[in-house]
Design brief:
By secondary structure, the chain is an alpha+beta fold. The protein has three domains: 2-163, 2-Layer Sandwich (Beta-Lactamase), CATH 3.30.450; 222-302, Helix Hairpins; 312-470, Heat Shock Protein 90 (2-Layer Sandwich). The protein is 48% helix and 20% strand. It has ten helices and 14 strands. The strands form four sheets. It has a five-stranded antiparallel sheet, with helices on both faces. A five-stranded mixed sheet has the order 7-10-11-13-12. Helix 8 packs antiparallel against helix 10 (428-438). The chain is rod-shaped and about 155 Å long.
């Protein structure tokens, strides 16, 4: 803004000075034009005819003129000396500034071959123009030489001083305006950027242990939107750190148990071959369990990556049949292929098979030999759109109400377990949930009609070819 204000003031001064030069040029042209016209057409009032004497011509013309402020009208006559004789008609000037009081300058103008120019003196600058009076045809004398001259001189200092004063006044006003604008801008910018400073201060105070600080949101402008976005980011970070801490605590607890068992058996192992064989068996089982826990943790870590699932067009009926065949090898149960959905959907067949086999394994762990386990798929039309459901339903004891809310969380196990001894770490249903969410869907728990639990993958689907078709083995 300072550069702009200085540029405006400088441009204004240039315009004013150019206007001064233009007005002075017009005045000089006008005065010399009037004199040239008087020479050509003027009549001597005493003789009643044309002027025949240069001094008489200049004297009559100057008597009839009244010069403007800062203007001098001079009549010059040639003499035997280089210095001309002066006739003048002018306003009074302060002593020492008038051109007619400077014989050297007057002589310089009279001797100049130019018709106009600018004379720079210590007393001030003078713009001048002259009309020489020569002898010869149409002239006043017959000698053929310059007998005199009419000179118009204009003192430019006062006119230029007005422009300079205006320039200084503009600079002063601009300075005041700049100071006021700076103060107002400082206050407004400080008020606008205050939330940004709060964001910076809040970010500086955040630690991994304390993510509870939030930024107060005021208004509905871009800064408020920034504060809301920052608060949302803090919410996500707080949840992520909480889940991470819980996950690390649970993983440490789950891994600590087999490590303790392995260490205890190794420390107590004697020299008896049978005891050594039993210890090796137990240690191997615990190491296998630790390996499965680590593999499940790695799988859940991959679930956060965008390439966790690779969807492709899949016939849901064929996928359901393949899962049913693989599930039957998990245990001696009454396996039933309840229904299949004759539909096509974008799914990752390997991940879906992994999730369904995990649900089937979970059903085997919660049922006895010979109890019923059903595998199926169907198409359901809901208000939110068409959904593909793949499910495993068992006739076991079901899930206790206190477990239903947390059963899909990591390292959570149901309290009502019977059937085969559980060897998992409580990560199986978490993996199922991660696979469902990777397909933009979810995992659901429902009670089975007649007793038991039904776990279903509810997934988005393309338009199905037909409705679900019931099927029995």
């Amino acid at each position: 803004m300072a550069v702009a204000l200085v540029a405006v003031a400088t441009t204004t001064r240039s315009i004013l000075l150019r206007d001064v030069d233009s007005r002075i040029s017009q005045l000089l042209t006008q005065e010399t034009g009037e004199f040239a016209n008087f020479v050509a057409q003027g009549v001597d009032p005493d003789a009643g005819g044309r002027f025949t004497n240069t001094e008489r011509l200049l004297d009559v013309f100057l008597q009839r003129q009244y010069s403007d402020p800062d203007e001098e009208l001079l009549g010059l006559l040639r003499t035997g000396d280089p210095r001309p004789r002066l006739l003048r008609q002018s306003r009074d000037f302060p002593p020492g500034t008038a051109l007619h009081q400077d014989p050297a300058s007057v002589t310089e103008i009279f001797a100049s071959d130019a018709s106009s120019g600018t004379l720079t003196r210590s007393e001030g600058e003078v713009a001048w123009a002259k009309v020489p009076i020569t002898a010869g045809p149409g002239g006043t004398d017959r000698t053929g030489r310059t007998e005199g001259a009419f000179v118009v001189a204009f003192h430019t200092d006062r006119e230029r001083a007005v422009a300079d004063e205006t320039f200084r006044l503009l600079l002063a006003i601009s300075g005041v305006a700049l100071l006021m604008t700076t103060g107002i801008g400082w206050a407004v910018a400080g008020r606008i950027l205050a939330p940004v400073r709060v964001v910076r201060a809040t970010a500086a105070q955040l630690t991994e242990q304390d993510l509870t600080r939030r930024i107060p949101v005021q208004g509905r402008d871009d800064i408020a939107a920034l504060a809301e976005t920052f608060n949302g980011m803090l919410d996500r970070l707080e949840r992520a750190f909480a889940v991470q801490r819980e996950f690390v605590d649970d993983a440490g607890h789950e891994l600590r148990t087999p490590i303790t068992i392995v260490r205890g058996h190794l420390e107590l192992m004697g020299d008896d071959p049978a005891e050594r064989e039993e210890t090796v068996r137990l240690v191997t089982e615990e190491l296998d369990r630790m390996s499965r826990i680590v593999e499940d943790l790695l799988l859940l870590a991959k679930a956060e990556r965008p390439d966790f699932v690779a969807p492709e067009p899949v016939q849901v009926a064929e996928l359901t049949a393949d899962v049913f065949v693989k599930a039957r090898a998990l245990g001696e149960r009454e396996w039933v292929l309840a229904e299949v959905a004759d539909a096509k959907a974008l799914l990752d067949p390997q991940r879906i098979t992994q999730a369904m086999v995990q649900l089937a394994q979970n059903a085997v762990q919660h049922t006895r030999r010979g109890e019923r386990v059903a595998v199926g798929s169907c198409v359901r039309v809901r208000a939110s759109g068409v959904r593909i459901e793949l499910y495993v339903a068992d006739s076991g004891p079901g899930v206790q109400p206190q477990d239903a809310a947390v059963i899909f969380e990591r390292f959570r196990r149901g309290t009502a377990r019977r059937g085969a001894r559980a060897t998992g770490a409580g990560l199986g249903l978490s993996i199922v949930q991660a696979i469902a969410e990777g397909h933009q869907g979810r995992a659901e728990l429902r009670p089975t009609e007649g007793g038991g639990a039904t776990f279903a993958l509810v997934l988005d689907a393309t338009a199905p070819t037909t409705e679900a078709t019931p099927h029995t083995p």
